[in-house]
Amino acid sequence: MVTVLAIETSCDETAVAIVKNRQVCSSIITSQIPVHQQYGGVVPEVASRQHLETINQAIAQALEQAQLDWGQIDAIAATCAPGLVGALLVGLTAAKTLAILYNKPFLGVHHLEGHIYATYLSEPTLDPPFLSLLVSGGHTSLIYVKECGIYETLGETRDDAAGEAFDKVARLLKLGYPGGPVIDKLAQTGNAQAFALPEGKVSLPGGGFHRYDGSFSGLKTAVLRLVQQLEKDAKPLPVADVAASFQETVAKALTKRAIACAIDYGLDTIAVGGGVAANSGLRKNLQAAASQHNIRVLFPPLQFCTDNAAMIACAAADHLSLGHTSPLTLGVESRLPLTQVMKLYQPES
C-alpha cells in the first residue's frame, strides 16, 4: 500500500492528486479551457504561465482534500512525456523540488501510461493482459498491455488523432473549442445516418486494408467538402446532423478496429482511455459490438477520461511497488513512444 502525490501538467490542465494503492484520496484539476478558448486552441506559452500561477495552490488543495501531510506521502510523481515541453517542465520541476525537500522517491510518468491506468481507478482488480484503446486529442492507439511498463502498439492513426478530428470539425462548424463535448451534445439531437462519410481506411502495399490502423484526415476533409457544398447550394447547414454523422463514423471506425484487434490477439477485455473515452457515441457502439463477442469493455469515470493527476499517481504507485524510481536528472520529452516507458526508471538498488 503506497501513497503517491502526482502532478500532471502536460497540456492545459494543472492537476494534482493523491492516490493510495488504487484508491483516489484527492484529485484537483484546474482547467485552462476558458483561457485558451479565445485563441481557438491551446497556446503553449500561455499554458506554461497558467501552470506556474496555479500549481502551488493545487498541491495545497490536494493535501487538504486528502487530509494528509507530507509524512504520509511515500513518493512524488509527475508527467514527464509526451506533451508541451514548457508545460511539462513546470510539473516536473515542482515534483523534483518536493522530492528533494521531503526526501521522497521521485517518479517520472509517461502520460499515455497514465491514461491506461485511469481504468484501474474504477476497476482496482483489473490485471493484464488486456487491450487498451487510447483516444485523445493527441493520440489514437491500440495498445497490448502485457504488464506494468511493458506495452506493444498494435494499431494507431496515421494522421489526425480522433480528438484532434473532433476539434477541427467543430471549428469547421463554428462550434468553438474544445470540439468533443459540443459535438457529442449536438449529436444527441441529430440524425447519424443523414450523411455518408468515409471511415478512413489505410491501404496495405499488397492490397486490402490494415485491420488496426486508421486515418481521420480524410474524414475531416470530407466534412469540409460537405459543408462547402451545402453552402454553395444555399441550403441551411444542418449542424446537428453533420455532427451526428461525423461522430457515428468515428465511433464505428474505432470500434471496428478495437474489436478486430481484441479477437485476433485473444484478449477478452478492452480498457478505453483518453478524452474521447467520454464520448457517448463511442461508448454505445463499442459496448454493443463487444457484447456480441463476449468481450468486456471498461471505461474510466468521466472525470478521469480527460487529463488528470490521479491516473499518473496510480501508474507511479504500481511502478514504485515494483522498485522502480526515476533519477532526479530525468528531463522532459515532447515525444516518447509508450514502448519506451522503462527508460524513465532505474532498477531498484
Properties at a glance:
five-stranded mixed sheet, 40% helix, alpha/beta
Blueprint of the fold:
Elements (H helix, E strand, L loop, with lengths): L2 E6 L4 E8 L2 E9 L1 H5 L6 H23 L8 E7 L3 H17 L4 E5 H7 L12 E6 L4 E8 L2 E7 L5 H11 L6 H9 L29 H16 L6 H26 L4 E5 L6 H12 L4 E3 L11 H12 L28
Parallel strand pairs: 1-4, 4-5, 6-9, 9-10
Antiparallel strand pairs: 1-2, 2-3, 6-7, 7-8
Helix pairs in contact: 2-3, 4-10, 5-6, 5-7, 5-8, 6-8, 8-9
Strand order of the largest sheet: 3-2-1-4-5
What is the arithmetic mean of pLDDT?
95
Percent of residues in helices comes to 25-40%
Poorly predicted parts: none
| Overall 3D shape | globular
Question: Mind explaining what this structure looks like?
Answer:
By secondary structure, the protein is α/β, with parallel strands linked by helices. Helix content is about 40%, strand content about 20%. It has 10 helices and 10 strands. A 5-stranded mixed β-sheet has the order 3-2-1-4-5, sandwiched between helices. Strands 8-7-6-9-10 form a 5-stranded mixed β-sheet, sandwiched between helices. Helix 9 (about 280-290) links the parallel strand 9 (about 270-275) and strand 10 (about 295-300). Helix 5 (about 160-170) runs parallel beside helix 7. The protein is globular. It starts with a strand and ends in a 28-residue tail after the last helix.
